[in-house]
Amino acid sequence: MRVFAVAAMTGIAFFSATGQIQLDRPKAPKPLPNPSILGAGRDDVKAVVKQMLETREIPLDKEDCNSKSGDCTLVSKPVIFIKGITTRSQLEHYCNAPAAQVRNWSRGRYVLRIEISPASPKTSQVGVYAKFEGFSDTGAGSEWVSLTSKGVLEDTIMRCIEERVRGGDCKSDEK
Q1: Does residue 17 have a pLDDT over 90?
Q2: How far apart are CA 73 and CA 117, in angstroms?
Q3: For a FRET experiment, which of 25, 79, 91, 137 has its CA 20 to 30 Å from that of 63?
Q4: Residue-range domains of the chain with CATH
């Protein structure tokens, strides 16, 4: 009888432990290097980036291409990506919000800067950079506060550009 009780307790403990542990859970992919070398010319990459920005409804503010060096810089207009109650969690997902100051965040926005340089006639070096800001409502007034990016959005955009250069179509609802 005692052996049966020990076996039953061991079985319960085993099934309880395996129910909590996921052995087949996929690991998150490592972020791509930023900047990355892509297998397409500068003009092709620039066209892909413009198309991707248009698809994601990110308005382009400035396009500057240097004819001597071949470098191109595309800058988006500020995009408000979150409003309301979930602003704090979304800002913390994409950037490092200052923990020393408790703020009431009501909106979050970013500006993308994409730099494209020809690495060789058939390859380009592409860098994606985001500047995040959170709108803070304080007793003294309201202001946009600059925040430091964690690189999550930049990696998402870089993966999309890389996939589109290869002929794929990155289907993400993320702006």
Answers
A1: no
A2: 9
A3: 91
A4: 31-165 (3.30.310.80)
Encode 23-39 in three state secondary structure. Answer: CCCCCCCCCCCCCEEEC
pLDDT score, position 34: 86
Token pair for residue 110? 């970013």
The 8-class DSSP code of residue 42 comes to H
State how far the alpha carbon of 153 is from the alpha carbons of 5, 13, 137, in Å.
Answer: 54, 42, 25
Calpha distance 90→81 (Å, rounded): 9
Three-point CA angle 10, 21, 153, nearest 5°: 175
Element (H, E) at 125: strand 123-138
User: pLDDT tens for residues 72-108?
Assistant: 999 999 999 988 888 888 888 899 877 656 678 889 9
CA 139 → CA 85, 88, 103, 104, distances in Å?
A: 18, 18, 10, 10
